[in-house]
Amino acid sequence: MEECIFCKIIKGEIPCFKVYEDERVLAFEDINPVSTGHTLVIPKRHAKDLWEIQGEDLAAVQLASKKIIQAMRVLDPTGVACVQLNGRGVNQVVMHYHLHLIPRISGKPPLPITGWELRQGDLKEIKKTADKIASAIK
Fold first, then answer.
1. Gap between the Cα atoms of 31 and 93, Å rounded
2. Which of 14, 47, 54, 83 is the most buried (most CB within 10 A)?
């Protein structure tokens, strides 16, 4: 994609702080980090989101993220949030599939993306929704 900033990074047209690379995946530091070590893991083949990404590219991103999260132990995190957004409605900004690996560093504030209020749902409505989704799986 000509306009995609991540595709430009993959081609070397825009610099990045590379963490990992293989034939299918590139991982680099986010320049707007939520925390120290905030890393983006992207497929080299353009796909807008989880709806578009090919299975082998998705698997490659996940396998690379496992290697990276193991290496993040050098940062002494208390945990790592793995966040992936699909679509502008949930604030996906760059329309190229990417997985955020966001470490929570010891002694730092909680990550804003890992806390939400738990509320008991309507079990009948939850079952109805589960059945609807399950019947649409191909």
1. 14
2. 47
Tell me the pLDDT tens digit for each residue of 79-121: 999 999 999 999 999 999 999 999 999 888 888 888 878 889 9
Reported as a single tens digit per residue, the pLDDT across 16-29 is 999 999 999 999 99
Residues with catalytic roles: 98
Where exactly are the structural domains of the chain? 5-136
- Write the CATH number of the domain with boundaries 5-136: 3.30.428.10
Write out pLDDT tens, residues 34-90.
999 999 999 999 999 999 999 999 999 999 999 999 999 999 999 999 999 999 999
Residue 43 pairs with which residues in a beta bridge?
Answer: 25
CA distances from 21 to 28, 69, 117 (A): 9, 14, 37
Helix runs in the chain, H state only: 5-11, 55-71, 123-136
The Cα 18–Cα 7 span in angstroms is 14
Strand order in the sheet with 77-83: 18-21, 25-29, 39-43, 99-105, 77-83
Structure tokens at 134: 């399950």
